[in-house]
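Example record for the data management plan.
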Amino acid sequence: MFTDSVLVKIIVGLVFGAFLGIISVPLSKKLTLNRTEDPVKAAPLNKLAFKIFAVVLGIIVSVTMTLTATDTYELVRNLFLLIPIFSISIVDSLIRKIPNSLLLVMIVIQAVYCAFYSITNHTTQNLIMTGFGFFIGFAACTVPSVLRIPVGSGDIKYSAVIGLCIYFTGYVQAMVLMGISGLICWAYLKLSKKGGLKTLIPMGPLLSIGTVITMCFPLLNKYLEDVAF
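Corresponding structural encoding:
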């Protein structure tokens, strides 16, 4: 790890988290307006309360990530992945669309990380894990669509890219957490009488929640490592 100082880790998390919250709002607004003819849908992004919420959430996530990280280079990759992940969640929540440009950014970040890891460790294991994760992420959302369960093409691509970035074990944990988040949302909708089990919920934010938690706490991966040894 780049430092053993908790204070330094917190400062890095605070600075990056504030940057993340500040940049994600205008970026999401631009991407939202580029994909809808109704500017009203981007109106929530103009509210001060939302901007403050974005900064606070960005700080919480970034500080948690820096404090739980065990590898400096993986931490750098994860922090940069938070930028497209945050914006994807916002845009998908507003207009139910996932920008391809943000998915491409995630792929580029992962490609740079994989190339660096392969060169410095003299192994192609990371590339194999990346390819397998992409396949699993793509298949996991393609199968429901084949069975006529409504899954958007953007959701399928986002799922595949998440598998590419956090590999098979990380993806499985993220999907479980996404399912739990979905149940919580549906329970809230039911109790508040704003919807029910048939209410369509954007998949992007839920998968993002599962992914970010998995990045901070890769419990399944650690469990499998303990079992293997």
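Summary line stored alongside the record: The mean pLDDT is 89.
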